[in-house]
Amino acid sequence: MPSDNTQPGFVLVRPQMGENIGAAARAMWNFGLDRMRVVDPRDGWPNTRAVAMASGAGRLLDEAVLCEDTAQALEHCTYVFATTARQRDLTKPVFSPEAAMTEAAKRISEGQQVAVMFGPERAGLENEDIARANAIINVPVNPDFPSLNLAQCVLLLGYEWQRARGQITSRRDEMAKTDWASNAEIEALSVHYEDRLEEAGFFFPAPKSEGMKINLRNMWSRLPLTRADAQMLHGMMRQMVRWKERGNG
């Protein structure tokens, strides 16, 4: 593999279609991966169909290393994963995609050279290839239809690599030109509604009024309100009061 040891190298073993190589390059670049090796591609190399399919990821194909066989592609590696959806008669540790990329990140942080092998589209890696790997990555797919497209498998491992590096945010909130309401703003909203509802006789009967007010305040605290939300709720209450005062109630 190249000297850059901040990521795993992806090795495409005997890929059959240029389009799939190009799609794999795009999938890699989606997640910042650019270390590709191509072993004995069926339709030769370079491949114009691969370039066309790669689109904006053409640089990966320009820099991809062409290898005669699997042994050459893995010669500088210290730990190798082989992807397969089928059971193999080989004794090896078997990782899920998530666990595999976590292990890859750990080993890379220790200075190791890690690679992931992907097999041909028709039948996947041969046992002769897998025998050169230290571990297997098994994707938990439908057992009645276990075949994954090459680029799909590359995309899956690329995503798990990003997760392993801590670069995937599980959730975030898109704020539309506003901020979250502060406790003071929620308190003001609560007081506004409590006062107006008190005037309207909402808190009835008297023995239950205190509990109703607590429930109302609890409701405001549970809601993830923005400043814009609070302003709109203030405006709604003011408009209803004005409408009532004009004698429309």
CATH class of the largest domain: Alpha Beta
CATH architectural name of the largest domain:
3-Layer(aba) Sandwich
Strand order of the largest sheet: 3-2-1-6-4-7-5
What percentage of residues falls in helices of 4 or more residues?
40-55%
The mean pLDDT is 91
What is the number of beta strands? Answer: 7
| H and E string | EHEHHEHEEHEHEHHHH
Helix/strand-derived category reads: alpha/beta
Q: How many whole angstroms does the radius of gyration measure? A: 29 Å
Walk me through the topology.
Blueprint: E1 9-13, H1 18-30, E2 36-39, H2 48-54, H3 58-63, E3 65-67, H4 70-73, E4 79-84, E5 94-95, H5 97-109, E6 114-118, H6 127-130, E7 135-138, H7 150-164, H8 183-199, H9 206-222, H10 227-248
Parallel strand pairs: 1-2, 1-6, 2-3, 4-6, 4-7, 5-7
Helix pairs in contact: 1-2, 1-7, 5-7, 8-9, 8-10
